[in-house]
Structures are given as C-alpha cells and as structure tokens.
DNA sequence: AATACGGGGCC
DNA sequence: GGCCCAGTATT
C-alpha cells in the first residue's frame, strides 16, 4: 500500500473507531485528550495475553479494585495475587506480574519507551509495543493475533504462520501513524475482533474493505497456519484428604505446570504409563467414581481422584483449608474441578 | 525455531 | 473435537 493509501486507510480506520470502539474497563474513549493510566494498560495487556476480552473483564475489575496502583500490587503478598489470578491460566503471567510490579514500583513508575518496557518481566514484543503506543502515545508497531489476521487479509499474505510474522509486522509498520498510534492499534484489534473475525468475516460492514485484497475472496482462509501436532494423553492421581471440616492442600513448585499455585496433592502427570501413586498420607484410599478430564495446551489429562478421611487420627501438619470455602482457596481450574467432584461424590455416599 | 504454558467459548 | 484468543520465556 502506498503512502497516500496508507493515510487514507488510517483515516477510514480511525473514523470507524471513533464510532464503533468497544467500551472496555481499561480504555479511555477514542480521541480522548488524555492517555490511559499505564498501570491499567499494563495490567490489562498482561491479562489479555492469549485470553479473550470477556474472560479478562471480571479479573481486571477485581485486581484494580483490590490493588488500585502498581505500588499496592507491589506490596501484595504473592499468594494473594496468585489466588486472585486462579482460573485465568498461564500462571507464569501472575508470577511475572508480581516481579514486574515490584520492579516498576522500585523505580517509581512505568518506563515510557518500548525498549525499556521490553526489559520488564512478562513484557514481550507485543506488550511493550502496546503499552508504549496506548499509554504513552508512541508510534510503536503493535502486532497481536488480531492484527496478524487483518494484515494477512489486507495484503493477501499466503505464507503460513509463523513464517509470515516478519512480513505481517512490516505491513503493520507501513500502516502505523504518528498521530493517535494507540487508537490506531486498538482500532485494528477491534476490527479483528468484531469485523475481520477468524470465521464469518463481516466484510460488508468493514470500513477498510476498499483497501483489502481478500474481500470477496474467501477471507476466512487467511491467515494460513501450519497444522498442529496432536495432543498426547497423560494421566495422574490427585488426593482429597479430609480431617474434620478441612481438606489438605499443597503449593506446587514455582516452575512448570500450574507453577506456584495451590493444588491438591498429586502425582506427576505422565504419558504412556500409569502414574505411580504418591498419597500424602498412608491410609485407606477410595477412588472417586469418575476421573477429571482436562485439556491443557499441549496434552490431555485424565486425573483420578482418590479420597480418604482421617478425622479419627491426629491431624498432620500442612495447609488445611475448610471444604466449605474451597471455591475461595485459589485453586486453578483443574483442581477446582477435582475438588468439586470429590466433594460432590462424598455427598452422595 | 521449537516447545511449554490455561482455560473457555464457538462451530 | 479442533480452533482461537490483545503472547512470553526458555531452550
């Protein structure tokens, strides 16, 4: 697209955004004289990594209500932040969130350049560009999954992802304006989310269809992607050990799957063999009727739940949590499912 | 460049 | 059941 056409594209896109921008809790309205609070932009961008807007909304509100500034968040206890993040997934984000908040609070405020933002934990190329653009008005080149899709269709890029990323970023750079770069980036993302959708692209309603190489030419086939490997199966055993009104919880190691999160005691999740039992207490265990089936990014898990009650014995030390309050224990979804199944199954006895 | 890393909603 | 989502860190 020529420079002249790029200018016309930017105008058409921003005119559309001025009317159709999604109202989101972390946003300021389009064309606003003020830029949004960098803390809110950062927090929303971390939560939005590989996570849909609808899911993020309630978590975002909870976090900003409980920790209104980066300094509040920096002063929070790790376990409180992780528990508040429970259910949102990709828990390394929560651990990096804490580290980043402390780094930023220590230096006083968020840096305003893409290069400095990129140095912070949990902030990669996309997020650095997004914060620089949206919160600091810099003409950074913002490219997320939405914008890759829009570029693929606008320029009919037939090269499959991820090889096409370089070309897509170059095309996005050609289109990035000096004025209102944050609105431009958000407009492209809104376009991708509401018009230039993965399936059922609404080309008739698209403000930039006159610039697009894919309109009327099966836009849904773009971007092309390399096929993914099949998900292997893994198995594991989790243990629901009760004593009186309480159940035993553990904290998982800081690195790896569900790292740092509260959990039920469990075996490692293994492929191609039965898990080796690893009960947290030697007693008589009984299997819950059905296993929990849970799909992770790179494997499918069948988790058998074993239950036992040792109320008659002295209580071993550990992280005992009231069963009645288990939904507030900060369990990731896998173990929340397991807890629900175990508690429900015992109810039926 | 490839892999690990969640979870939910949609078709 | 596969695809997709405001990706990053590690190897």
Short description:
Pfam families: HHH, HhH-GPD, NUDIX_4. The chain is an alpha+beta fold and 349 residues long.
Walkthrough of the structure:
The structure is a single chain. The protein has 349 residues and is α+β, with helices and mostly antiparallel strands. Helix content is 40%, strand content 11%. The chain has helices spanning 3-20, 38-48, 53-66, 70-75, 78-85, 92-107, 114-118, 125-136, 145-154, 165-175, 181-194, 333-348; strands spanning 233-243, 246-251, 262-263, 286-287, 292-295, 300-309, 319-322. Strands 1, 2, 3, 4, 5, 6 and 7 form a seven-stranded mixed beta sheet that branches. Helix 9 packs across helix 10. The longest helix has 18 residues, at 3-20. The radius of gyration is 24 Å and the shape is elongated. It binds a DNA duplex (11 and 11 nucleotides) through helix 2, helix 3, helix 6, helix 8 and helix 9. Keywords: DNA damage, DNA repair, Glycosidase, Hydrolase, Iron, Iron-sulfur, Metal-binding. Its EC number is 3.2.2.31.
């Amino acid at each position: 697209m020529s420079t002249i056409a790029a200018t016309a594209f930017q105008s058409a896109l921003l005119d559309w955004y001025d009317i159709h921008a999604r109202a989101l809790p972390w946003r300021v309205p389009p064309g606003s004289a003020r830029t949004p609070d960098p803390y809110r932009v950062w927090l929303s961008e971390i939560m939005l990594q590989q996570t849909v807007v609808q899911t993020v909304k309630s978590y975002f509100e909870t976090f900003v209500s409980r920790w209104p500034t980066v300094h509040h968040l920096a002063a929070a206890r790790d376990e409180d932040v992780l528990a508040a993040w429970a259910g949102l997934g990709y828990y390394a984000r929560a651990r990096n969130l804490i580290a980043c908040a402390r780094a930023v609070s220590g230096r006083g405020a968020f840096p305003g350049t893409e290069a400095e933002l990129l140095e912070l934990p949990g902030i990669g190329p996309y997020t650095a560009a997004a914060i620089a653009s949206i919160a600091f008005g810099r003409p950074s080149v913002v490219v997320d999954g939405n914008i890759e899709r829009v570029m693929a269709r606008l320029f009919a890029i037939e090269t499959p992802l991820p090889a096409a990323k370089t070309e897509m970023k170059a095309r996005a750079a050609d289109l990035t304006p000096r004025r209102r770069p944050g609105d431009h980036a958000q407009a492209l993302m809104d376009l991708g989310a509401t018009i230039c959708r993965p399936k059922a692209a609404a080309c008739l309603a698209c403000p930039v269809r006159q610039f697009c190489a894919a309109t009327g030419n099966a836009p849904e086939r773009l971007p092309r992607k390399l096929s993914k490997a099949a998900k292997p199966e893994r198995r594991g055993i989790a243990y629901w050990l009760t004593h009186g009104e309480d159940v035993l919880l553990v904290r998982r190691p800081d690195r790896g799957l569900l790292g740092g999160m509260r959990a039920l005691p469990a075996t490692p999740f293994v492929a191609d063999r039965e898990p080796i039992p690893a009960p947290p207490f030697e007693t008589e265990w009984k299997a819950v009727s059905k296993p929990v089936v849970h799909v992770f990014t790179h494997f499918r898990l069948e988790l058998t739940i074993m239950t036992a009650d040792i109320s008659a014995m002295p209580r071993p030390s550990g992280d005992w949590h009231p069963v009645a309050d288990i939904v507030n224990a900060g369990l990731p979804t896998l173990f929340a499912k397991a807890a629900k199944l175990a508690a429900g199954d015992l109810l039926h006895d």
